[in-house]
Specification:
alpha+beta, Glutaredoxin, four-stranded mixed β-sheet, two-stranded antiparallel ribbon, 8 strands
Length: 190
Amino acid sequence: MLSRRLLLAAALAGSGLAGRPGFAEELTLGEDGLPHVEWFLQSLLELADDVTLAGQNGKRLAVMWELRGCPYCRETHVKNLGDPAISGYIREHFEVLQLNITGARTVVDFDGEKLTEKALADKYGVRFTPTFQFFGESADAMKAKKPRDREVARAQGYLEPKHFVALFRFVADKAYEKGSLRDYLRTQGA
């Protein structure tokens, strides 16, 4: 574990981001090789329960799909989630579930189907990392919907910090009920 931390710290030092205010200085990798974020949702991987729990806490569920060694995932952790203002906003409004696009853990989907993380990613058409999925507020309402129709928003790939936080605001404000993310970004000046 220590050697992974040193490698990440060296990579960050070379990127010019380490030591800058508002950016994570090092990432701790879990056993699966993904960056460990202490405040991410510790889940039993039953999506319906996760949506319900988030709602009970006055929050929404966001799923972050990652891949071991993904440079854009690292950028998301360092520049976006490493910024205290951005992570503070997300923590206040969302439960974030981290999934591995090639992972083997069993996840129970909204319709009750048990799949590996990899199979779940395939079911939802998740092909890139990082990908953020945002789901509706009612687990019961999502059971009968097709997988992609369960999402209220999705972002694939790295987003610059101002667009990243705007994405989360778009979902928290339920702006998806009025228009597209692109329209929302225009109105927000992002």
